[in-house]
Amino acid sequence: MKSRARAVAVVGTLAVLHFLLKLGLGVGQAAPDLLTLALLIGARELSMGAGAGVGFFFGLLEDSFSVLAFGGSAVAMTLVGAAGSRTRDLFVGDSLVFLVSYLFFGKWVRDLLHWLVVGEGVREPFTDAVLVQAPIAAIYLAVVGVAAVAVTGAWWDTAR
Amino acid sequence: MPPYVTEEEERGPRRQILATLFFLLLAVIARILPPGPQQQVASIFRASVLRPFVLVQEGLADSRVHAETTEDLQARLDSIESLVTNQRTLVEENARLRDMLELGPRLGAEYVPASLIRPGTAMSQSMFLLDVGLDRGVSEDATVLTGAGLLGVVRTTRKTSSIGMDWTHPEFRASAMTLDGSVYGLVLVERGEFRESDRLRLDGVPFHQELDDGAVIVTSGLGGVHPRGIPIGVVEGEAETETGTGWRRSYWLRPLVQPGRATHVLVLVGRPSGDLSTEWAYPSAEGNR
pLDDT averaged over chain B? Predict the structure, then answer.
């Protein structure tokens, strides 16, 4: 229960930091996608339905400033939240390799789903969005995620 | 023999799947909703959960403005005062002549100053938030300008805020012409392989008309979205994309407004139908022939 409370606090802090950096301070692409990181960490603590619910809520928040692609992040993050919680049944997840892979592929799949959902008129070219920008963003998120986990201790308690 | 499970344990996974499908269905509905209801939902989030973050950015923008030196502001004020003083006689003379010709007062454009902030979230790279809305007369499709020319257009408005898109957005279009009105076309964004390689293009120029580099392109007023005469860009060579068809020409444009630098803008209100070309200092270049 204690580890769950810590994970919830980490998820909340990361979500607030995400919007503070991107929206409040206008850092934009230079800041990592802390909202997806929060979802991926939180999903490991939640059931599949709750993971999907948190993903849906986070996605709608992210979509609030997207006029032509509204709902794209909501669909992508709902699926990632549900899938993230399912990984708990498939992997123990107590290794660094798993943590890095989970964060990397979680973010990359989120960007891929988002690209697929938003529609042809709005999205950027596949090569740029999915094969160049998404992996770079995923590596960035994985590095920040490992640092966040190391500092806060969230995740390892759950994995054990 | 299958392991024994209680009814509650059997129901658990099914409930989770149903909950997941429920949220997924809600997300899909959010995606396919018409733009009106979508923006109603978005505005609820912007006005509640995300409001503190918007206020932080507004506060930072204000601080940046206040940080400008007093001398700089005083110099600008002096320049404006001298300009206004010089123009006063012209205005009086113009009014007197119009009176003699029994013409009504000239309908000038009405502007609302606004602060522009960038959301920085996914799929909002070409979008911006303005701190003016319906209460200041801002309507959907209102033109957004900077001192250099056309920045973009308002997409949705709420009571005290608006969301717009700049010319880097893939759906941006502007009916355009040369300064003298001899060549018409449509300005749009040519997407590159990467965002940095996105370029403005003047499309649909008749094949028998040519433009030289340096020709200034302004809005034509056709289509009723942007009034006539707002600078958009300067011709920078012919694009090869459309010439292959043999029916029309396309030209690359160097945009006059850099969206990333815009922090304070003007929003046109009241649907001005006149020609705004007299209100701009165009780059000194004539290139159409």
Answer: 81
CA–CA distance, B66 with B46 (Å, rounded to integer) = 26
DSSP 8-class letter at B261: G
Q: Which of B20, B33, B129 sits opposite A65 (nearest CB)?
A: B129
pLDDT of residue A79: 96
Minimal-distance CA residue of chain A relative to B44: A64
Say if residues A43 and A91 touch (Cβ distance below 8 Å). Answer: no
Q: Is A39 in CB contact (< 8 Å) with chain B?
A: no
- Contact with chain B for residue A71, Cβ under 8 A: yes
% of chain B at pLDDT higher than 70 = 82
Rounded CA separation A85/A71 (Å): 21
Q: Which residue has the higher pLDDT, B191 or B26?
A: B26
pLDDT band at A160 (very low <50, low <70, confident <90, very high): very low
pLDDT single digits (tens) A96-112? 899 999 999 999 999 99
For residue A70, is pLDDT > 70? yes
- Bridge partners of B149, per DSSP, are B146
To the nearest whole angstrom, how far is the Cα of A56 from the nearest Cα of chain B? 6
Close Cβ partners of B155 (under 8 Å, ≥ 6 residues apart)? A67, A68, B127, B140, B162, B163, B164, B165
Is B33 within 8 Å of A70 when comparing Cβ atoms?
Answer: yes
Q: What is the interface size between A and B, counted as CB pairs within 8 Å?
A: 169
Q: How far apart are the first and last CA of chain B?
A: 89
Nearest to A121 among B120, B171, B195 (CB): B171
What is the CA angle A64-A70-A73, rounded to 5? 85
Cβ of residue A61 closer than 8 Å to a chain B Cβ: yes
Chain B residues touching residue A71 (CB < 8 angstroms)? 27-33, 38
Question: Which pLDDT does position B40 carry in this prediction?
Answer: 86
Instruction: Indicate if the pLDDT at residue B287 is higher than 70.
Output: no
Mean pLDDT of A146-155: 83
Q: Which of B133, B164, B138 is nearest to B47 (CA)?
A: B133
- Helix/strand/coil percentages in chain B, nearest 5: 35, 30, 35
